[in-house]
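Reviewers of the previous submission asked for a worked example of the structure-prediction workflow described in the proposal, so we include one complete record here. The input consisted solely of the amino acid sequence. No template or homolog information was supplied to the procedure at any stage.
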Amino acid sequence: MSNTQARLPRPVESERTALKARKVSFSWEDTPLHWVPDEPFATHTMNVLHLLLPAGERWFVHVYRQVLPLIRDERLREDVIGFIGQESTHSQAHDEVLPHLTELGLDPTPYTAQVDWLFEKLLGDRTLPPGRARHWWLLERVALIAAIEHYTAFLGDWILNSEELDRRGADPVMLDLLRWHGAEEVEHRSVAFDLFLHLDGSYRRRARTWATAFTALVFMWQRGARFFMENDPTLVDGRASFKAFYDGGKRGVLPPTGDLLRSVPRYLSRTYHPSQEGSTEQAAAYLATSPAATATSAVPAAPAAGKGAGAT
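From that input alone, the workflow returned the following structure tokens.
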């Protein structure tokens, strides 16, 4: 085997599974504002998902619908269509949490407006001439999605294994939402990276877009947590800090900072492939028992054609 071949990403074939969107329904009437008891910061740090994901996953879908005509591998095309269906459902499910937060006195609209601007304007379609410039911008966004999906899969794997949240009596409906979503993130964790390899695969682009995605996620997440803590009507002088995040990780109610940092060199390794992380078997086991996922039957994947979020 040549040195070049030895350094190629190595997928784990047994971790691949056929993807389908699952119709789910959640009832939020009994979910309290601090759904992790006595942990407002941990609660609000995870609540940032409800702010970022609806717009972000609509953007994923919009970009991938543009990419579908460029896919030359039928198996990958099927994976991407399944990915589109799952992400569309995720976006809707998290969007439906926002009115409940407003009813509890925490209106997220000022922050979600900023998130919408990020994905629809800054990362949306641009008025570019057909040809290389337009293709370059499409590939940049495909690579950004691959980097972001590394962290959504990381979070999905963490929430599936977060036993401390159960011990602390976290709201079962919110846990089911996060674990259903997390399980599907683990289930489709390789699709974005495989698509990036199929269309481009440049290591330089992978490293550059990782740096952009990681910086943006940290920035947006801390802004979101700070927004929630400062506007929580039940808190006096509520604050968010990296120390609070670190301490939450040590207590098991948030992802451990060390695990998060160790995920960086793994993604930047030339032999990295998402199938090497997490467990499809564990994800499937949760989806087979999730109250929301088993209450209704699977629905067809979202159609490949059509206009999605992110257009300008």
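Confidence is low (pLDDT under 50) at residues 1-6, 298-312. We consider this example representative of the routine output the project will generate in years two and three.
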